[in-house]
C-alpha cells in the first residue's frame, strides 16, 4: 500500500504542475473550453485516486473545487482572475496536504471562497453525480473528432500546365493526419505514346484526420477545376463497434463493381480479389486499393483502441542514470576493443569491432536522448514566479516563452532552475519599472519578459530579455569604485563595466529588497553555469532593457575531448573551447624573456605551462605543444608535451574528496584502461588571474 | 538554396508587403512593376514562382500568365494571381490562362505564406 501511495503522490504532483500551467493559461484565455476541461480532469483524477489510496482529506477538499469547475464547464460560472486565484491557492493547498504540511483553516477558507462564488453550486448531491457522467464525455472530446476520408484524386491530363504539382498536394494531405496513398497506373500509355508533360497517374488516399472535411477540401482548392475529385467520409470516430467492411463491400461502395457480380463470384469460394480480377470485373490495382483501404481502417481502429497507456512508460530516474553509466562503460570497452583490433591487425576482428563501434554509438545516442527533457518543464515554474512576484511588487509583467520544446539533459535542466529564477527575479525587481514609471518613459505600462530557448551547435542558448530600465554603466562604475573593485580613474568600456556585475559581492540595487539584491548576485549564477560547462553573457541598453544569454551544453555525460600528455600522465581538454594547437620551441621561450607569452598570428597569447602547474617530474621535450583555448573572449594557451588526438570522453565524476580541486572537473577511462583527468580550463585560467 | 519568387504589382506598397513577408520566410524575392517589366527581369533570374496582380498598366496579369506559359522554362511554374473577392469571372479567366492559384486581397502575411507553401511544396 505504501508503494501505491507513493505512486499516487508522484502522479498527483505531476497533475498539480499541469493544473498550474492550465490555470495560468486559462487566466490569459478565459474562454478556452479545452483548458477548463483540463483543469476539471486534473481535479477529478486527484480526487478519484485520492479516495482510492486513502487520501480522504484530499479527496474531500478537491471535491468542492471540482464541483465549482464542473459549473465553470457548464458555463454557469465565468472564469475570472478571482476564480483563478482561488484555484491556484487550492492547488497549493492540495500540494501542502500531499506534503503533510497543510493548514486546515486555510483549506476551509479556500472552500468558503469557492462557495461564495456567484451562482453557487446547487450543493453536493448533483455535483457528486457529475463525475460519473463526465468520463465518457471527456473521452469523446479527446478522440471523437477523428474522421476517416477516402479521397479519389484523378487529375486531368493537362494538370501540369497550370503549374500544379500533385505531389505537393499529397504531401499537404499527409500533414493533416495519418494517410495511406495508393497510386493507380492504369492510365499510363505505351512508352512510345508517353508524353512527359501529361499527368497519367491518379491516386486514392485514405486519410485519418481530426481537421474536418473543410481542411481536406482546402487542400484541393486550386486544383478543383483540374481534376476529378471525390471525398467521402468513411468512418466517424474510433468508437464504431460494427464489423469492418469486407473487401466486396468496399469495392461496391466505390462503384468499382456491382453487388450482383460480387455475389456471383463469392459462390465460387476462392479468394475474392483474385476471382474478381479473373472475372475481369475489376483490375488488380483496384483490388489492391480496396485491400489497402481495409488494412488502413483496421490499423486506425487498432490505434484508437484504449491501451494508449503503452505509448509511454514511467521509469525511475536512477535507472536511467545507471543506464547512461553502463553505456559509458560500454563506450570505454569498445574503445579498448578497437585499439586491440588495430594493434593486432586482425581483419576479421577489425570487421567485428567496426560493427560494435557503430552499434555502441547508436546505443549511446538513444540512451542520451532518453534523458533529454523539453525545457518547458523549467519554464512552467517561472510563469508562476513572474505572476506572483509582479503582483507583490505592484508591477504588471507578461512572460513570453519560446522554444519550450528544446530538449536538454535532465541534469542540466535541474541545475538550471536556480540560475533562471535568480535572473528573472533581478529582471522583475530591478529591470521592469512600475507602470507609472513606464508610462512616464513612454513605454506600455505592461512590461514584457521574453525567454527563448534554441539550439546552437552542441549547445542550447537561453535568452532572457526584458524591456525594463536596463543597466546604467555609470552606476556600475560608481558602485565598483565605492566597493574598491575598480580604480576611480580606470578606463573601462561600457561592455567591460557590464561584465563587472558578475564579480562576487556586486549588487547595484539601491536598497536590498526581499526579492533580490541580497549580495548573492550574478556571480553565483555565473559559477553555477560554469559548473555545467556553460557560460553567461549580458547585454543591456539604458532605458531599453537587458538581455541575458545562457549557453548550455546539450548533455553532461559524454563530450568530445582532446587527449594530451605530460610525462606519463594523460589529460583531457574539452574540445568545445579548443581553438588551435601550435608548437612551442625553446627559442620561443627564450624570445619571451621569461614571460609566459606567445606570439600567435600577431597576437600575444598568454600560456600556462601545465607541467610546472601540476608539478609533473621530468624535463619537457625540446618542442612542446600549446593548445589554444578560447575562454570568455580571451585566448589562453595550455602547454603540454604531446597532443594525442580527439576522443569521445565519458565523464566520470570524482569522489567528493577531490571536490576542492577546481582545475579538474572529472575523469575518464581510456581505451587501454588508464585514467585521464579532465581539465576545467575556465578554472585553470581563473586560478591564473588570482595568482597574478 | 532558397527559392526565388517574383512579385508583380503596379502598387509599390503591395510589392513591398509581399517581398517583406516572403523574405522573412527565407525566400528570395524579385520585384516587377508590370507584366512587361516582369518578362524583362525574368530571363535567367532562376525564378521558381510568380505572384502577380491582374490589373496593371502596359501588360496586365492575364497577358503575363499567357506569355509565361508560352515560355518553355515557365510552362509548369506555379503562378498565383492576386484578386479582390468575388471576381468570379476573372478567376475562371486567369485559371484558363494557366494560373495555378489565387490569393484574395486584402490578405494577411500568413495567408500569403500558406499559399506559397501550398503551390511551391
Characterise the protein shown here.
The complex is a heterodimer of chains A (692) and B (121). Helices cover 47% and strands 22% of the residues of chain A. Chain A is α+β, with helices and mostly antiparallel strands. In chain A, the strands form 5 sheets. In chain A, strands 6-8-9-11-10 form a 5-stranded mixed beta sheet. Chain A has a 5-stranded mixed beta sheet with strand order 19-12-13-21-20. In chain A, strand 15 and strand 16 (603-609) form a beta hairpin. In chain A, helix 1 crosses helix 15 and helix 3 packs parallel to helix 5 (104-115). In chain A, 28% of the residues are buried. Chain B is an alpha/beta fold and 121 residues long. Chain B has helices spanning 12-24, 35-42, 61-70, 88-97, 109-120; strands at residues 4-8, 28-32, 49-53, 79-84, 101-105. In chain B, strands 2-1-3-4-5 form a 5-stranded parallel beta sheet, with helices on both faces. In chain B, strand 1, helix 1 (12-24) and strand 2 (28-32) form a beta-alpha-beta unit. Chain B starts with a strand and ends with a helix. Classes of the chains: A alpha+beta (692), B alpha/beta (121). Chains A and B meet through helix 7 of A and helix 5 of B.
Provide the fold topology:
The complex is a heterodimer of chains A (692) and B (121).
Chain A: H1 2-28, H2 33-52, H3 56-73, H4 81-99, H5 104-115, H6 124-143, E1 147-155, H7 166-176, E2 177-184, E3 202-209, H8 213-219, E4 227-236, H9 247-253, H10 259-266, H11 272-278, H12 284-304, H13 317-344, H14 347-370, E5 372-374, H15 376-393, E6 397-402, E7 407-409, H16 410-431, H17 435-440, E8 447-456, E9 459-466, H18 473-482, H19 494-499, H20 522-531, E10 535-541, E11 545-553, E12 558-566, E13 569-574, E14 578-585, H21 586-591, E15 597-600, E16 603-609, H22 610-613, E17 623-631, E18 634-640, E19 642-650, E20 664-669, E21 675-679, H23 681-691
Parallel strand pairs in A: 6-8, 13-21, 16-18
Antiparallel strand pairs in A: 1-3, 1-4, 2-3, 5-7, 8-9, 9-11, 10-11, 12-13, 12-19, 14-17, 15-16, 17-18, 20-21
Helix pairs in contact in A: 1-2, 1-4, 1-15, 2-3, 3-4, 3-5, 3-6, 4-5, 13-14, 15-16, 16-20
Chain B: E1 4-8, H1 12-24, E2 28-32, H2 35-42, E3 49-53, H3 61-70, E4 79-84, H4 88-97, E5 101-105, H5 109-120
Parallel strand pairs in B: 1-2, 1-3, 3-4, 4-5
Helix pairs in contact in B: 1-5, 2-3
Amino acid at each position: 500500500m505504501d508503494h501505491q501511495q507513493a505512486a499516487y503522490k508522484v502522479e498527483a504532483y505531476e497533475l498539480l504542475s499541469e493544473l498550474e500551467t492550465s490555470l495560468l493559461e486559462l487566466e490569459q484565455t478565459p474562454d478556452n473550453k479545452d483548458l477548463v476541461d483540463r483543469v476539471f480532469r486534473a481535479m477529478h483524477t486527484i480526487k478519484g485516486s485520492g479516495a482510492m489510496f486513502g487520501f480522504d482529506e484530499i479527496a474531500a477538499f478537491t471535491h468542492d473545487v471540482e464541483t465549482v469547475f464542473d459549473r465553470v464547464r457548464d458555463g454557469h460560472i465565468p472564469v475570472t482572475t478571482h476564480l483563478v486565484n482561488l484555484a491556484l491557492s487550492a492547488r497549493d493547498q492540495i500540494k501542502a496536504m500531499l506534503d503533510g504540511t497543510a493548514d486546515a483553516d486555510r483549506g476551509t477558507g479556500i472552500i468558503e471562497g469557492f462557495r461564495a462564488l456567484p451562482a453557487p453550486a446547487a450543493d453536493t448531491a448533483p455535483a457528486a453525480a457529475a463525475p460519473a457522467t463526465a468520463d465518457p464525455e471527456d473521452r469523446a472530446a479527446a478522440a471523437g473528432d477523428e474522421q476517416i476520408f477516402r479521397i479519389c484524386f484523378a487529375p486531368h491530363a493537362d494538370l501540369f500546365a497550370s503549374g500544379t504539382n500533385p505531389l505537393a498536394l499529397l504531401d499537404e494531405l499527409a500533414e493533416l493526419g495519418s494517410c495511406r496513398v495508393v497510386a493507380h497506373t492504369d492510365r499510363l500509355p505505351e512508352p512510345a505514346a508517353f508524353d512527359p508533360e501529361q499527368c497519367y497517374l491518379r491516386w486514392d488516399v485514405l486519410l485519418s484526420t481530426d481537421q474536418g472535411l473543410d481542411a481536406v477540401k482546402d487542400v484541393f482548392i486550386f486544383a478543383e477545376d483540374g481534376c476529378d475529385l471525390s471525398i467521402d467520409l468513411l468512418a466517424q470516430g474510433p468508437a464504431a463497434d460494427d464489423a469492418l467492411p469486407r473487401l466486396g463491400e468496399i469495392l461496391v461502395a466505390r462503384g468499382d463493381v456491382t453487388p450482383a457480380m460480387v455475389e456471383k463470384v463469392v459462390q465460387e469460394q476462392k479468394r475474392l480479389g483474385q476471382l474478381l480480377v479473373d472475372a475481369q470485373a475489376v483490375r488488380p490495382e483496384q483490388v489492391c486499393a480496396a485491400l489497402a483501404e481495409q488494412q488502413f481502417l483496421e490499423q486506425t481502429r487498432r490505434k484508437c483502441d484504449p491501451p494508449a497507456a503503452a505509448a509511454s512508460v514511467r521509469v525511475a530516474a536512477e535507472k536511467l542514470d545507471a543506464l547512461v553509466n553502463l553505456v559509458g562503460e560500454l563506450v570505454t570497452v569498445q574503445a579498448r576493443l578497437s585499439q586491440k583490433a588495430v594493434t593486432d591487425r586482425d581483419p576479421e576482428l577489425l570487421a567485428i569491432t567496426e560493427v560494435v563501434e557503430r552499434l555502441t554509438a547508436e546505443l549511446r545516442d538513444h540512451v542520451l536522448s532518453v534523458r533529454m527533457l523539453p525545457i518547458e518543464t523549467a519554464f512552467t515554474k517561472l510563469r508562476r514566479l513572474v505572476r506572483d512576484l509582479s503582483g507583490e511588487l505592484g508591477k504588471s509583467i507578461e512572460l513570453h516563452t519560446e522554444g519550450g520544446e528544446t530538449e536538454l539533459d535532465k541534469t542540466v535542466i535541474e541545475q538550471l532552475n536556480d540560475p533562471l529564477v535568480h535572473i528573472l527575479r533581478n529582471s522583475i525587481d530591478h529591470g521592469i519599472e512600475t507602470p507609472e514609471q513606464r508610462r512616464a518613459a513612454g513605454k506600455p505600462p505592461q512590461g514584457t519578459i521574453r525567454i527563448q530557448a534554441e539550439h546552437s551547435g552542441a549547445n542550447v542558448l537561453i535568452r532572457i530579455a526584458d524591456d525594463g530600465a536596463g543597466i546604467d554603466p555609470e552606476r556600475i562604475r560608481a558602485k565598483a569604485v565605492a566597493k574598491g573593485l575598480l580604480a576611480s580613474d580606470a578606463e573601462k568600456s561600457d561592455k567591460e563595466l557590464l561584465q563587472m556585475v558578475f564579480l562576487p559581492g556586486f549588487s547595484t540595487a539601491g536598497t536590498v529588497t526581499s526579492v533580490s539584491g541580497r549580495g548573492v548576485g550574478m556571480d553565483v549564477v555565473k559559477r553555477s553555469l560554469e559548473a555545467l560547462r556553460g557560460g553567461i553573457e549580458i547585454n543591456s541598453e539604458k532605458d531599453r532593457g537587458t538581455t541575458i544569454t545562457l549557453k548550455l551544453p546539450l548533455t553532461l555525460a559524454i563530450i568530445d575531448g582532446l587527449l594530451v600528455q605530460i610525462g606519463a600522465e594523460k589529460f583531457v581538454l574539452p574540445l568545445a573551447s579548443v581553438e588551435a594547437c601550435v608548437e612551442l620551441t625553446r627559442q620561443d621561450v627564450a624570445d619571451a624573456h621569461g614571460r609566459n607569452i606567445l606570439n600567435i598570428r600577431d597576437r600575444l597569447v598568454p600560456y600556462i605551462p601545465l607541467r610546472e602547474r601540476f608539478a609533473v617530474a621530468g624535463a619537457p621535450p625540446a618542442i612542446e605543444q600549446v593548445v589554444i583555448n578560447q575562454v570568455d573572449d580571451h585566448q589562453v594557451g595550455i602547454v603540454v608535451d604531446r597532443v594525442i588526438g580527439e576522443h569521445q570522453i565519458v565523464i566520470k565524476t570524482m569522489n567528493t574528496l577531490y571536490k576542492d580541486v577546481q582545475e579538474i572537473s572529472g575523469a575518464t577511462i581510456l581505451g587501454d584502461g588508464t585514467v585521464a583527468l579532465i581539465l576545467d580550463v575556465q578554472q585553470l585560467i581563473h586560478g591564473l588571474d588570482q595568482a597574478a | 538554396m532558397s527559392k526565388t519568387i517574383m512579385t508583380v504589382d503596379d502598387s509599390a506598397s503591395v510589392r513591398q508587403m509581399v517581398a517583406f513577408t516572403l523574405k522573412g520566410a527565407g525566400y528570395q524575392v524579385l520585384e516587377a512593376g508590370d507584366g512587361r517589366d516582369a518578362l524583362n527581369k525574368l530571363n535567367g533570374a532562376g525564378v521558381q514562382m510568380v505572384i502577380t496582380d491582374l490589373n496593371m498598366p502596359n501588360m496586365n496579369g492575364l497577358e503575363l500568365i499567357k506569355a509565361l506559359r508560352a515560355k518553355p522554362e515557365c510552362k509548369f511554374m506555379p503562378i498565383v494571381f492576386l484578386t479582390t473577392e468575388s471576381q468570379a469571372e476573372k478567376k475562371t479567366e486567369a485559371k484558363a490562362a494557366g494560373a495555378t492559384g489565387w490569393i484574395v486581397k486584402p490578405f494577411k502575411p500568413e495567408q500569403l505564406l500558406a499559399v506559397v507553401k501550398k503551390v511551391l511544396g
